[in-house]
Amino acid sequence: MKHLTILTVLLFLSLIRGQMVNEDEGRPSCSRCDLHLSCNCSYSGFTSVPMVTDQALRLDLSFNNITMVTQDDLIGHSRLMVLNLHGNRLAVIHQSAFDSLWSLEELDLSDNQLNTLNHKWFSKLEVLQQLNLLDNPYRLRRLMFGGPDLKELRREDLSGVTHLDELTVHANNLTRYDSGTFGDIWPLGHVSLSLYGPFLTNTELAAALLNDVCYPETWITLVDFHLPNYVSVQLFKDTFRRMRNLSIRNLSLSDEATVSFLPLLDGIPLRSLSIVGLTLTGEGRWISANRTDLSSLDEFFISDVTIIDILKFAMTSDLTFLLQYQKKLSIVNSKMFLLSCYLTQTMVNTEYLDVSDNLLTDLTLPYMLCDSGEVLQNLRVLNISGNHLKSFSTMSRLVRKLTRLTHLDVSRTSYSSMPPSCTWPSTLRYLNISRAKLATITPCLPKSLEVLDLSYNDVKEFVLTLPVLRELHLSGNKFLRLPAGGHYPIWETLTIQSNTLNVFGLSDLQSYRRLENLEAGHNKFVCSCEFVTFLHSQLVGSGDVKITDGKQSYVCDSPFYLQGEAVSQVNLSIIQCRPVLFVSVSCGVAVFLGILVSVLLWRCHTFWYLKMTWAWLKAKRGSQRRWKQRNMDGSEPLLSFDAFVSYSEKDASWVEEFLVPALEEPSDTDSVNPTSPLTLCLHKRDFLPGHWIMDNIMNAIERSRRTVFVLSENFVQSDWCRYELDFSHFWLFNAGGNTAILILLEPLSKDNIPKRFCKLRKLMSSTTYLEWPQEEERRPEFCRSLRNALRGNDEQEN
Ligand SMILES: *[C@@H]1O[C@H](CO)[C@@H](O)[C@H](O)[C@H]1NC(C)=O
Ligand SMILES: *[C@@H]1O[C@H](CO)[C@@H](O)[C@H](O)[C@H]1NC(C)=O
Ligand SMILES: *[C@@H]1O[C@H](CO)[C@@H](O)[C@H](O)[C@H]1NC(C)=O
Ligand SMILES: *[C@@H]1O[C@H](CO)[C@@H](O)[C@H](O)[C@H]1NC(C)=O
Ligand SMILES: *[C@@H]1O[C@H](CO)[C@@H](O)[C@H](O)[C@H]1NC(C)=O
Ligand SMILES: *[C@@H]1O[C@H](CO)[C@@H](O)[C@H](O)[C@H]1NC(C)=O
Ligand SMILES: *[C@@H]1O[C@H](CO)[C@@H](O)[C@H](O)[C@H]1NC(C)=O
Ligand SMILES: *[C@@H]1O[C@H](CO)[C@@H](O)[C@H](O)[C@H]1NC(C)=O
Ligand SMILES: *[C@@H]1O[C@H](CO)[C@@H](O)[C@H](O)[C@H]1NC(C)=O
């Protein structure tokens, strides 16, 4: 059995299917294993991978109806050497389904329904030698394999692989190639071959391999192509005739090799040749190759040229043959300091010339552009980016005669100033002066410009009239504000990142009538309310201008507490943004709350409590004052009343008609123990007019031995205020011997008394009160009790 020596198989896929959930329970099992631990489970109608002993060395699961291999199906089969899944209906294989099959040498997945291949399936199969993927509906796009150990490629190795977008083979040490191995692969988009060894030692092999992949529509890339000596090109002649598009990376050529290799290109229909990384080991003696006909070459790109012996190197032949035909010529990053007028004058077809990243200067550039003579009459694009140029006026003078020039790239040069006026080809539409050192812009710039790149200079201001300008790039300069749009009626794109812009707003953008793309991130934004609000609205796309550089580029620089915060993440509060509105709203709210609180206070009688406290305090002060006064006078407190009667106005009639007569007139009802009349203090009768009521009450209480409260519904409901006043004062002087006597005019439950009369409630529960009997005959008894109570008979009170 032939073995594949492919070590690295990388299969790149257009699509990688998602993982499937594994339902492991109820798995069927298969025990048809023989003494050699070879298990034959084929033709058994399994719809999933059955359980088989871990010891199995070979497992044949062919011709079942298995549709998927899950992550766990083959776990533990570390000894398995051969796995055959041919002829199932496999469509899904978990990416780590084969991870435990360390010993697997042969894997047959042929004749299944695999739409996609996943290189991860094979990543742990380190000893896999044979893989069969035939007859699956997948479409392999890119195949890359090879390495230092790839020694042989045999006819069968790639059987079944047909058309590919990309084939990459690293075959630097290849010693055997069966002609036709790659022959079945067609169409073939791009082939990249590393054939270092074969080109040096076995050109037949290299020629045979190249012959199998060369088609006119295939792009060939040769990597690490080193020709130190004379090469016999006869073998390659036919192959190269079929090439249209050839790239070579890392090419090394001696003079002999160059002279023998160039005839290979003689007269062939090659259209595009690109060489990246050319090392010239010789001295430039290429004369005998000056006849090479490269007239079909449209595009020649060469970059990174290194000349080993630069001192000895002398280009003794002219390179006219090499450079004169191309439409598109690039000689990039090759330390070229001169391209002679003699050469450029022959380049009559050249439309695109890129000499970026070389050593051209203001002195050698006139040679290249033939100073005053005619040259490069068809040139459209000139790229002199990355050269040592300092005089912008020289450039303008030299390109003036290129009458078809549309694109000029003079970026990454050392221009630091511009003359006040210049002349340019009238066709010039694109000018790139980025990454120079310009500080000011003058009307030197051509009016015909559609695209102007001035990024990464030191420009602060831009006020030119450029009527057809569409794109302006100003990133990396020192702009403090956006340029006004008035002068650029068809402006579409503006990039002004990494400047010193603080803010911009709708008013700036309104002058840009046609602007579609704005990139203004990475500036030092001051996150004011207007700016934040404006940018939020722009970022959600409500404006005409589209901000295209991603909201993460807009970061606040100040105020300090927002530094580093993405503007889109900033939420400024209303205090910061609308102080006036905020103040008015908060005042409104405060007034409303005040009213609300007042209403609540009123509902909860807080004023009443306050009033009480105040009155109490005041009364206390007044009483203390009088106390002191009396102490000073040395007189005893004057008791002129037996009782102060506190009653409701509505109960006045009872007080006047019953209570006063009953107590103040000498009683004769009780003949056994005739009583002397009592003196009562009634506010109606005994208060001194003209005094403050409070003082009156004070006085009355002070001058009375007892205080009688006539309690009734009226008293509690309407006169509670007075009651409490009296009561507080009474309480104040309670200690001085004045005690309260409660008379209930009508049955009154403690629960009917408002809660805030806590003192009264307390008193009612601790003190016995006299009830006014409704029955006529019990009234004398009541009078007696009351009289006794007033006389100070303590037993009566309980
Ligand atoms: C397994 O058995 C089938 C017939 O049932 C046979 O065709 C096949 O060759 C056997 N596989 C192996 C590996 O012996
Ligand atoms: C597989 O399933 C199909 C239909 O689901 C059936 O016709 C066929 O016989 C099955 N094959 C085997 C080998 O069981
Ligand atoms: C493969 O080729 C390289 C040079 O490209 C050489 O250094 C190396 O020894 C070779 N490896 C083998 C295994 O022959
Ligand atoms: C060019 O090829 C040589 C020989 O294979 C190799 O040693 C060198 O690293 C390559 N250079 C680059 C830049 O790839
Ligand atoms: C050569 O191939 C490259 C890559 O496909 C392509 O970009 C280029 O245009 C082709 N050149 C020609 C002349 O066909
Ligand atoms: C090639 O070089 C020789 C010797 O310098 C010269 O006579 C001949 O004209 C050149 N041929 C071309 C096509 O330039
Ligand atoms: C000029 O060359 C530079 C560097 O190779 C490149 O970035 C730029 O795009 C080129 N300009 C044009 C107009 O092709
Ligand atoms: C201008 O040149 C610079 C550097 O070569 C390049 O990065 C940039 O893309 C060019 N600008 C435009 C608008 O092509
Ligand atoms: C601002 O609000 C957004 C969502 O409303 C939130 O994701 C973000 O974290 C907030 N930013 C700050 C700085 O609180």
Automatic annotation (TrEMBL):
Membrane topology: Single-pass type I membrane protein
Transmembrane segments: 580-602
InterPro entries documented for this protein: Leu-rich_rpt (IPR001611), Leu-rich_rpt_typical-subtyp (IPR003591), LRR_dom_sf (IPR032675), TIR_dom (IPR000157), Toll-like_receptor (IPR017241), Toll_tir_struct_dom_sf (IPR035897)
Nucleotide-binding recorded as keyword: no
PROSITE patterns: LRR (PS51450), TIR (PS50104)
GO molecular function, one term: transmembrane signaling receptor activity
GO cellular component terms attached to this protein's record: plasma membrane; receptor complex
SS bond list: C33-C39, C341-C370, C422-C444
Protein's name in the database: Toll-like receptor 2
Source taxonomy: Eukaryota, Metazoa, Chordata, Craniata, Vertebrata
Record-annotated TIR domain positions: 639-790
Function description: Cooperates with LY96 to mediate the innate immune response to bacterial lipoproteins and other microbial cell wall components. Cooperates with TLR1 or TLR6 to mediate the innate immune response to bacterial lipoproteins or lipopeptides. Acts via MYD88 and TRAF6, leading to NF-kappa-B activation, cytokine secretion and the inflammatory response.
Pfam families: LRR_8 (PF13855), TIR (PF01582)
Alphabetic keyword roster: Disulfide bond, Glycoprotein, Immunity, Inflammatory response, Innate immunity, Leucine-rich repeat, Membrane, Receptor, Repeat, Signal, Transmembrane, Transmembrane helix
Region forming the signal peptide: 1-18
Intracellular or extracellular location(s): Membrane
BP terms from Gene Ontology: inflammatory response; innate immune response; toll-like receptor signaling pathway
Entry keyword Signal: yes
Family: Belongs to the Toll-like receptor family.
